[in-house]
Amino acid sequence: MNTKAVFYHAGCPVCVTAEQQFVDNLKSPVESVHLGLQKNRLDEALKAGVKSVPALVVDGNVFHINYGAGIEALINS
Q1: Which Pfam families match (predicted)?
Q2: β partners of residue 58
Q3: What are the tens digits of pLDDT across the range 3-42?
Q4: Quick check: pTM over 0.90?
Q5: 72 phi/psi in degrees, rounded to 5
């Protein structure tokens, strides 16, 4: 079975640290989506269940890592 993983973030220091310490060490490839720069992906993140960033979605399961920013802050920016 192929695992699909997407890491949603806003580019903040908490997000960057999570990406460096967590995502870069996963065995499966992970797509990294900077929601501050890729606002066209916000709806996708919301539908996946992302409520704050940084967040990792693996096979439909959302893992909120620490708390950098609520997704509403990205929608309203």
Answers
A1: Thioredoxin_3 (PF13192)
A2: 5, 61
A3: 777 888 888 887 777 777 676 667 777 888 999 899 999 9
A4: no
A5: -60, -35
Q: What is the CA 5 to chain-centroid distance, rounded? A: 9
Q: In Å, what is the CA distance from 41 to each residue of 6, 18, 27, 30, 34? A: 11, 20, 24, 16, 9
Query: How far apart are alpha carbons 18 and 34 in whole angstroms?
Result: 13
Tokens of 24: 């870069």
The rounded distance, in Å, linking the Cα atoms of 1 and 72 is 34
The amino acid at residue 5 is A
